[in-house]
Amino acid sequence: MMELVDSDGATNNSPGRVSMMELVDSDGATNNSPGAKRKMTPESCERKRHRARYINGPHITDDDVKSILNCVKWEKETREVVEAVLAKLESVSAAGSDEENLLSTLRKKAQQLKEKCLLENIYIGVFGQTGAGKSSLVNAVLQEDSLLPTSSTGACTSAIIKVQSGRSRSYKAEIEFLVEKDWNEELKLLVELCEKDNNDDDDDDDEDEDNEEVEMAKNKLKMIYGACGPEKSYEDLIKMNIWQQIPKSGKKTLSGENVEELSKKLDPYIRSNLHETNKVYWPIVKSVSVYIPKSQILPEGVVLIDFPGSGDNNKARDEMWKQSLMQCSSVWIVSAISRAIDEKIANEIFSSSMKSATNGGRCHDVAFICTKTDDIQWKEYLREHRFSDEEIKIPIEGHQMEADEEMKRFCVLHRNQAVKEAMLKQYETKRKTLMKNKPAQMEFSKDDLSVFTVSSRQHWGPKNIDSETEIPSLRKHIVNMYLKERKKVVNSYVSEVRGLLHLLKSLNWNQSIILRSSYDDISSDLKKGLNIFTQHLENCGEALQKHLEKGVKEAEKKCVKVVKQHAMLPGAKSYKGYHRTLKAICRNDGVFNSAKFGPIDINYDLSKGLYMEIDTFCESHLQLNRGRRVSMKGQLNGIKLTLTNMIDKPLQTKSAAENAQAWKCRQNFMTTELNGLFNDLERQIIECKPHIYKAAILAVQSSMKPAYEGAAQKKGAGIVPAMQKILIERVEQEKDIFKDAAAKVMEQFIKLKDKLKKEMYNRMDITLKLGFSQWPGHNPLPAFEHEVNQINRIWDEVNKNPSEAI
């Protein structure tokens, strides 16, 4: 196990330590020790000064570090107990079929506990407009000033980048490329945007069109195919066969002895503003995973995802963007402080995050991060606010330069506080508005919103004042999220292992008659509960069907209007100057993330009537935040309460105290298994809900695909009306397009229903059979007293401190 030790020999438990901590292993070797795996290259004095700064910051306490290490220790010790139990069970020879069946079930249970993964990733999505300073923010939070590319002149990062701690002491990056098929589909779109077809109408209006898309397309083609790339045809570009330079696996690994070396190697794959003649690959990169050395700032399992500022017209990357957002437990919305309050994209990301949180996603935390707080015209700020001397409270004596610095600092802090208060008030109002019609989903509360004011430049500057940049507070925010989840899963794991050991301890005690009587009673109640749950699932299916029928009618009524709206320039009275964008939409199967117009999704708009009805259904029937009777949570709580009450009843006997003790052990096992089962059922519902939501959109997209392909081939005069006609004819002629979409939604719900029924029946059957099982006794089971004592000690440690208990 690793202990934190600073350069003076003090540990992480030493009082008042504010120096840089090193990781020290059990043999006393540190990351700076001779022979350490990671080679330490010479650093400049400036970089040493930055590294010497207390990396954990004043907001990550010794107790936080101790909690992280305790979680690691408890998991490790519990896994050792499980391995010992499994070894003892493997050593037992069964004398008959009854012993063999019971022994096989016990071994399987122990093996599952041995293989159980407790490090499910916690994703933090970093979103924001181009130039907001997302990459600079990530670098500052991780104390790695050159990890991700930054620029003062515009967009720099081009790919989705996932940053996490590795288990080694080196820096590593794994690059995943697009598959050739996905790139070829995008290539058609890029060529379409770049070509100048003299037969296209509205050429005089090209200046009004979204030329940003055209420039982006030209830039991508130049990067991959050279300066003449935008002038070549699709067929000519295909013949160049760029995939000869890409590994057959579609992946590539880079490594570096230090962050600067890795960053330089990464540049061609993620930096969009390189001015060198070297080969550049970023347009065909799907995603990049970067691993930094083990760090307390970014505990293992926490993944920071840096998303590019502008949209993407590649379907594979766009789908990854959507999936990543649904995975995010936390969303960071990054804006320059000067425009944070009024920035439109911040509001859009916030709405998407709330939608994700209520419609099947995992987001339960939104942080607004106002960057570039040191960028202020402080003299103008003073004139604007007309502060009194009492408000400023800065002595005017001393050097003028020092006085100016203090005055600027006062303005920075004042604006920071004012913006934080304004944003919290603004977005709390928006949260209430978004949740107004979603009372069942109010688990996302105002406490889940926070605002941080940061300056990456101030953080790296010679006068790093914590009150001026809340980088340390963001680190604390990460650690708090990690510990909340980590403590919960470790506590659950220890409890599950403890329950199994209590069962094993009681198996040799002879109480078969008493157990049979109790088993029959609980089995009867279980069957009643399962029948009620099954009927509830059937009722949910009937309710969903009614919602879908209503949604189909709404979608059919508005589909032609939706197509017409998408064939016109947003905000314009005609469709002139929009044909390239519309062709891009059709080339991309109805979806296009425009740098100028934002995300465009015809499929969602066509299926919106269905989508809203699905939303209403999920709010009332699949929500898990409140245990209302009609909801899934209410039904699960009802069954759980019934079974728990039955299990908690004492044995109806005057038998010896040994029987009461054995029953208590079995109660512990069954209660633990019951809690684990219902937690797993809720997780399965959360995982399946996004598929239910997306089913209608994907079905509409599939039905519209022939029309998209046909419209994308149109050229010459009257191109937009011709494309519009093809799309309208499709929705008019395909009468069952929305009924088919509704059927796909029902398919996803039926999968969820069958999965829940199977899991409930199978798991409860095994739990009851084990909880009431009796070892036949032909060959006695090994003694598990030692393992029981070990797990009880671990359990007591986990729960001895209220702050550690879950």
Explain what this protein looks like in three dimensions.
This protein is of the alpha/beta class and 806 residues long. Helices cover 56% and strands 9% of the residues. The chain has helices at residues 45-52, 62-90, 97-115, 134-141, 180-194, 211-225, 234-239, 259-270, 315-327, 344-358, 378-385, 389-392, 400-435, 456-460, 471-506, 512-566, 579-587, 602-606, 608-622, 632-647, 657-712, 719-733, 737-771, 785-799; strands at residues 3-6, 21-24, 122-128, 160-165, 171-177, 251-256, 285-292, 302-306, 328-336, 366-371, 449-453, 591-594, 598-601. Helix 16 (512-566) packs across helix 22 (719-733) and helix 21 crosses helix 22. The radius of gyration is 31 Å and the shape is globular.
In short:
The chain has helices spanning 45-52, 62-90, 97-115, 134-141, 180-194, 211-225, 234-239, 259-270, 315-327, 344-358, 378-385, 389-392, 400-435, 456-460, 471-506, 512-566, 579-587, 602-606, 608-622, 632-647, 657-712, 719-733, 737-771, 785-799; strands spanning 3-6, 21-24, 122-128, 160-165, 171-177, 251-256, 285-292, 302-306, 328-336, 366-371, 449-453, 591-594, 598-601. With 806 residues, it is α/β, with parallel strands linked by helices.
List keywords for this structure.
13 strands; disordered C terminus; two-stranded antiparallel sheet; 9% strand; nine-stranded mixed β-sheet; globular; 806 residues; alpha/beta
